[in-house]
Amino acid sequence: MSREESFDKIGRPAHVCLRCEAGFDDGDIFHSAIFRGEEGFVRQDFCGACWGELEEVPLAVWKSRRADSEPPPPPPPDGALLLELLGRLVQEAKREDEAFVYLLALYLMRRKVVVLESTEGEGEERQLRLGPGRGFDDVQLSIRERRFTGEEMDRAEVECERLISGEVGANSA
User: Fold this and answer.
1) For the residues of 91-152, what is the DSSP string, one character each?
2) Which strands sit side by side in the sheet containing 114-120, from one edge to the other?
3) Angle formed by the axes of helices 150-165 and 98-110, nearest 10°
């Protein structure tokens, strides 16, 4: 399985904690992480108590919420608009935007707006080379992949969530 295919097979949230098997009720917030498995990337979900006991360092982490009977969220933003935003942020190349750019690129890969064509470099110089996905032409982006601090990722996660949920409007600061 290629790296691109394994991103598509990360999976839906579990109904229970992987470690203690405590159930997640409607509206519960829990921790999700991506680990490298034998056949690609593997998603694992943990309750708050078990999250602090992880021995292996995950490749990616985020907080998930168990769906409840709330009305469905608004439709996601237009892929072309997000791709344009990503392209502009890549051109600006500001260090303070790198974590947000990285998360936005992952989101666009998940939506198949862009695809991972290759990786280059090692450590802090590692680059993800992105190409056109479904219905998009002339996309060639290079995204820096590095170890982000928890603070950087928390800030980027909040900004991505605001953007994708529609909270970022014309008058947002």
Assistant:
1) HH--GGGHHHHHHHHHHHHHTTSEEEEEEESSGGG-EEEEEE-TT--S--EEEE--PPPHHH
2) 114-120, 127-132, 141-144
3) 50
Mean pLDDT (whole number) for 87-108: 90
Instruction: Enumerate the β-bridge partners of residue 65.
Output: 29
pLDDT per position as a tens digit, 5-51: 545 556 778 889 988 999 888 888 999 988 887 777 888 999 989 98
Tokens of 131: 């190409």
Residue 138: left (phi > 0), alpha (psi -120 to 50), or beta? left
Ramachandran angles phi, psi of 13, nearest 5°: -65, 150
Residue of 150, 156, 158 whose CA lies nearest to 96: 156
Cα–Cα distances in angstroms (integers) from residue 44 to residues 4, 98, 111, in the given order: 19, 25, 20
User: What pTM was computed for the model?
Assistant: 0.55
